[in-house]
Amino acid sequence: MQIAILAHEKFPGRAKTALGVLRYADYDVEAVLDRDSAGDRVADHVPDVQDAPIVAGMDEVGDVDALLIGIAPIGGGFDESWRDDVRTALERGCDVIAGLHYFLEEDEEFAALAAENDCELWDVRKPHEELTVSQGAAGDVDAEVVLTVGTDCSVGKMTVSMELARDAREAGYDAAVIPTGQTGIMIEGWGNPIDRVVSDFTAGAVEEMILEKGDEHDYLFVEGQGSIVHPAYSAVTCGILHGSMADQLVLCHEAGKEAIHGYESFSLPSIPSYVDRYEDLAEPVSDATVTAGALNTSGLEDDDAARDAVGEYADAIDAPAADPIRFGTDDLLEALLE
Amino acid sequence: MQIAILAHEKFPGRAKTALGVLRYADYDVEAVLDRDSAGDRVADHVPDVQDAPIVAGMDEVGDVDALLIGIAPIGGGFDESWRDDVRTALERGCDVIAGLHYFLEEDEEFAALAAENDCELWDVRKPHEELTVSQGAAGDVDAEVVLTVGTDCSVGKMTVSMELARDAREAGYDAAVIPTGQTGIMIEGWGNPIDRVVSDFTAGAVEEMILEKGDEHDYLFVEGQGSIVHPAYSAVTCGILHGSMADQLVLCHEAGKEAIHGYESFSLPSIPSYVDRYEDLAEPVSDATVTAGALNTSGLEDDDAARDAVGEYADAIDAPAADPIRFGTDDLLEALLE
């Protein structure tokens, strides 16, 4: 499938979804839309993902099957400056894939255009109707369940889950990803958008996916969300922790981060305390232990400094650690897989 | 306002909402509907709430303004055996108040009858449209925020919040309740149904209420939900803990309870560990401490045994404790109010 990715004014630094799709999804990306860096190429900014031209708008994109909204502003609203591009896509018969809280299919203009041009609006963040409360049964599946947890939002949990599952498969293990957020769902082509389900069903929506896949694979890598210390998003984190009944946790962190992103008055507690917090919170529901750590060192230019930071982080969590993007996943997989 | 309360086959033991409304709300209850105990009176079963006749159906009820659904089955569905009563109420021009996950206003027959007879369907569990993520700002309000937390669901958190707020007001303090569940909302006449909001907005929906009332009162008693160790509902509990940015916690428990209700393979951890769990989880967001405990001793017939159980419970949590229904709230208010 050929797609264009909308990432206006945010590519690549604040375009987590766009980057995830470029890196992991099975799409041919024909163009990235970003009016601020039109004329550049993806490779000018990010070397290790598939390359594509960056253009100012949908009218500069050739033939594609879908336009994918690759950015997610805080609050998840639709930015009206994107309307022309979505309209153009629909008029040309392209599907539109979005992970916003604002549902495109409830937008009258888009719904009408989609019907007129026989194309699909896929709001990946719209939960299906049959979700319900957890039965506390995820622990019964055969698979080993490995959940990424974090010190904050946007520290790399989705990326780490994808890297671990891909490399485990390449090493001959039967591993799958359990996607819980818009990017993971776009990459995998299925999944429950946990941050959008009814709060009572948070754990249940994770459990449903574990039960669906848990006897088909030997390892499930569950994409975590938020952080257990986050003033706004901890409920989602807690629901995933208990709903997945994880066996192992991979604690994800970004080197140098000291405060909650967007909530700077809230300092991060010490790294070792996170290990206790996650294990203590999990314990009445599952015997989850932090068996590995992933450190995002993209903010450190020097490889030696990054290596030092990873070493310090491993000491702090008392478990093997790595930056999977910079140094690969070998050490982590050795710790996680039997 | 005059109401009837529907509680078929569940009054009083499994009719938490009906009992809460009978005990705390400012309604005149004309009748309780329970086909299993029709002919009895409320006072035959529950001595310390307003009395009313128990009848088999709505056609035996005199003139009322509203029918209130006073039971909430697991899952929150609508039981079709209630349809005749709701239909009769609407045909007589009564409003219908419900706290189910199933919304009456989305039921075609009820919506049509309500329109025809000019009466209102109030689905208290339907969240309003403007909810969003927490700003992490609840700690900025003037009021002291007191949250009830629990060892499990249905151990008395709503009751304890109502008792404390009522008795604090009677003692001359300016205290209000922040309702978070269907019964609390029905009693108070406003509030966000936290278990039904989008999971990303769990903390935000609590914060919204704290910010609305926090500078108008000296004490806010926040109705807690679920339990932080609950395999299905912990997400909601966590969101309320962080969203309220509570100053003080009242740990609620039911004497003799050893396992999670409905999830009997999950044992409750030790009582002292709950104190640590709640305080540790709160700590990165607010300095909440467990300053009092409430023990539901309704399962103990003997007052001395109940008194012993309360004493043991106070020792276990290392804070003053009481059964507010059996022994009053004096000891708790002394610990909680300055």
UniProtKB/TrEMBL annotation, chains A, B:
Q: What Gene3D superfamilies does UniProt report for this protein, alphabetically?
A: NAD(P)-binding Rossmann-like Domain, P-loop containing nucleotide triphosphate hydrolases
Q: Where is the D-glutamate N-acetyltransferase-like C-terminal domain?
A: 133-333
Pfam families in the record, alphabetically? DUF1611, DUF1611_N
UniProt domain D-glutamate N-acetyltransferase-like N-terminal: residue ranges: 36-127
Q: Which PANTHER family match?
A: DUF1611 DOMAIN-CONTAINING PROTEIN, GLL3100 PROTEIN
Write down what this protein is called: DUF1611 domain-containing protein
- Organism for this UniProt entry: Natronococcus jeotgali DSM 18795
